[in-house]
Input
Amino acid sequence: TMEWWTHLWLNEGFARFMEFVAVHHIFPEWNSWNDFVFSVSSLALRLDAMKSSHPVEVPVNHPDEINEIFDTISYAKGASIIRMLANYIGIDSFMKGLHIYLTKFAYKNAVTEDLWNSIKESSGKDIESIMKNWTSKMGYPLISINDNSDKSVSFSQKRYFSSNSSDSVNDDDTKWVIPLNVVTEGGVSDRTFLIGSTNESEEKQFAEYIQKLENEGKWFKLNSQQTSFCRVNYTSNQWSRLSNLLKTDHNNLHVADRIGLLSDCFSLASSGHLLTVQALELCQSLKNESEYFVWAEICSNLKELCRLYSEQSFFPKFQKFVQDTCLPIATKLGWDAKEGENSDFMKLRASLISVLSAAGHQETIQEGINRFDKHITDSSYSLSPDLRTQIFLIAARNKGQGVWEELVNIYRTTTESEIQRQVLMAIGAVNGKAENALQFMLDEVRSQDASFPLAGVCSSIKGASTAWTFFTSKYEEFEKRFKGLFLWSSIIGAIVDGIQSHEQVEQIKAFFKDHDAASATRKVQQGIESVNNKLAQLSRDVSSVTNFLEK
Output
């Protein structure tokens, strides 16, 4: 047991990491580490790039602060840096150190340094000096490969922020010790470079290795299989080589590396380091991709951009781009699972239907409505569990008259909690019914399920705006029902993060000056920062994306 809440991550981060260790050991064919890269590391990288993040180890002096740290940083970043360490020293050495730690501190309290000392004993490496800044400092590094005036290349590391215009960009000089491996045309490097350590020869050898690859005109990708917790930016030439590789022979890169390239490129575009057009071109390079997690990364980013651009004049052309990108594989998969089909294809089908409906693809929308109607009128017809959420949402957003009553009836009559939660999200997404859905949430929905209709409401810009107005008008009711619960921060976070106007950002700041957000204080800060970052990206994208779509 951790000695104090400061060391919460020792429990939660380790537990999240071991979920994947166990599953990979029993079912290696499930490729669970690809899932980790997509659903755990990417989530942590997104949140920890904010100014309003917090270190893995954070002082706790008040009960409200305890609730705040049961979050993505403690769970997902904690798991990610443990994975980084395990990959660096080797899983056998890591497990041996873990055995020493668990044996020594059985039925006792422990702190982070106790874990590092145990792993040092098994590995012979100075683990604390490597890992100290990963737990004691917020954020993580961006490793940049830079063009120099003499046509050589160099590398640098600097804390990465979700906005390149952040006031803090030049203020944080934290350096991390980063275990870094490289994959290139010749295969994966047979060594791991320890960047940022006191051993200057290590960095010199790494720089020479990168320069050699560059001189030979070879493609290379840092952070093979995304084992280290960082982002990477390349020179324009190297991005071009990697894009061409994805277009001509994407299987030369591991699935986790393809996910990582997409994740880094979209994030660097959202922060202003790259143009969003570059990320869109990367998507075009992967039209022949067939792996679920790669497509899941593409779909989640394109769907996010659909929301960001939804009120812009170029949005119809962007919708056409999304359709052109996703339709070939969606058509190949169809709507119905085939006998013996890999479970990844079932998940991929749902992701593609979701993004195509967001992109206004009429055939997809009509098929979703048809299946929903058949579900309503034919008691012998049941929707595929894999597609049920998407079909409910398509009907909610597009069917029109009568769909509110049909969805509410499903909620009131079904006895399956999974279906109830799926239909609650759809109830929140019904066009023109945002306020009705929010009142329905307060009147009929159990507290533990309140986040589902709220998520549906806030999935649109207009809905999130309505949710904010509703929340402030009924604040006392929300406070009485949810404050003090874990759900309180999720509710406020969902509303604030869904906003997309400077005016409402100012309203949020003013409101929480007079009202104590308590355990949701950090969520408010993160939400405001996220909204400002999205608005900044939108301002940058209007011209370049318009030009790209008109080519």
About this structure: The chain is about 65% helix and 5% strand.
